[in-house]
Amino acid sequence: MQAAETLYMVIPCYNEEAVLHETAARLRQKYTDLREKQMISPESRIVFVNDGSKDRTWEIISELHAQAPEFFSGINLAHNAGHQNAVLAGLMTVKAQCDMAISMDADLQDDINAIDEMVAKYYEGNQVVYGVRNARDTDTFFKKITAEGFYKFMSAMGADVVYNHADFRLMSRRVLEELANFREVNLFLRGMVPLIGFQSCNVYYARAERFAGESKYPLKKMLSFAVNGITSFSTKPLKLITALGFIMFLVSAAAFVWAFIVKLTGHSVDGWSSTLCSIWLIGGVQLLALGIIGEYIGKIYAEVKQRPRYIVAEYLDQNAPSDPDKS
Ligand code: UDP
Ligand code: MG
Fold first, then answer.
1. 107 Cα to the center of ligand 1, angstroms
2. I need a labelling partner for 214 at 20 to 30 A (CA). Which of 11, 89, 252, 305 fits?
């Protein structure tokens, strides 16, 4: 194997005071092993991105960095930018210092032992390595059903994603540089990374339960994530409207013929119920169509504003040129 390369782990954290110490301890152990095995360089770091937490998360991150700067770095975002933006903020901030970066959630649901295999796959020439869950035994029944429905629905709607892959993935510096060219505001990293291309592969692992604390992704956020993924990645809903419109046209043509026959045969009724029904039906379909079109217009609006997607308030990292405690 060639000289060990530099791995940066990017961990988004939103109100994660309950798990941070444990996550840090386990990752530190993992880094020690990987350094001993000469799989990663001594410059490799674990970077916690504080996504505008309201608890002691940033204080803990700063302490970790102060105690062991050779392991831990921290990025403090100026406000809560959301999971996807926090991951991107981390990746873009560290890309100048690393050869490869792995993004992972803070709650230890992803198996850190998969990191060895991910790094090995990187040395084999893969530019992207997707961490893929092979079981969902530990998720609640409800989470399992909604999450599986999520992937099926996404791909049915034309936004192709790696099945059962969340945001546990390794990317090479080359891929990060390409990712930097994606200027979109509505981030959906799982859809974007496959678009970049390059050689990639999957690494399988069992997903564990959240170590401590509560899920920051309740159903409401999951649904909006799915809607965001679909409308950011496909125009299939627009095509469905067209199809629906066509079917409606056929139905109304048939209804017209039927009404005409009824009229001719002299059995015509007062027509109140059918008129009312069609008004409701057409009104509903129109509203639905307008709603979906509005969804896209809302996105165009957000994109044309070209707002920064995140703001880094502070970056604590020994290897960064701007770090105040660089030794
Ligand atoms: N997270 C974040 N910003 C947010 C919400 C979540 O950075 O606004 C982080 C969170 O700290 C965790 C990861 O995103 O590291 C995934 O969140 P969570 O584990 O709550 O989601 P779930 O696994 O339940 O889908
Ligand atoms: Mg989680």
1. 8
2. 89
- Over residues 266-288, the mean pLDDT reads 72
Work out the pLDDT band at 73, boundaries 50, 70, 90: very high
Tell whether 227 is covered by a domain. Answer: no
Atom 2 of ligand 1 has which residue's CA nearest to it? 83
Which of 10, 14, 85, 228 is the pocket-test mutation for ligand 1 (most atoms within 8 Å of CB)? Answer: 14
Mutation to probe ligand 1, out of 10, 83, 187 (largest number of atoms < 8 A from CB): 83
Range of the domain at 283: 236-305
Query: Does residue 142 sit in the same domain as residue 66?
Result: yes
The CB of 110 under 6 Å from ligand 1? The reply is no
**153 lies in the same domain as 34:** yes
User: Any residues with CB less than 8 A from the CB of 18 and at least 6 apart, and which?
Assistant: 211, 212, 213
- Residue pLDDT, tens place only, 198-226: 899 999 998 878 887 887 777 788 888 88
Residue 285 is encoded by which pair of tokens? 């379909």
3 state DSSP class of 211:
coil
* C-beta 215 within 6 A of ligand 1: yes
**Do 284 and 213 belong to one domain?**
no
Q: Cα 215 vs. chain centroid, distance in angstroms?
A: 15
Ligand nearest to the CA of 104: 1
> At 275, which helix (H) or strand (E)?
helix 272-305
pLDDT of residue 281: 74
Residues 164 and 215 in one domain: yes
Ligand 1 atom having least distance to the Cα of 216: 20
Any ligand 1 atom below 6 A from CB of 5: no
Measured from the Cα of 215, ligand 1's closest atom is: 20
What ligand has the least distance to the C-alpha of 147?
A: 1
The reply to whether 44 and 102 lie within a common domain is yes
- Binning pLDDT at 50, 70 and 90, where does residue 327 land? very low
Residue 228 lies in a domain: no
Per DSSP, the residues of 17-56 read HHHHHHHHHHHHHHHHHHHHTTSB-TT-EEEEEE-S-SSS
In a domain, 240, yes or no: yes
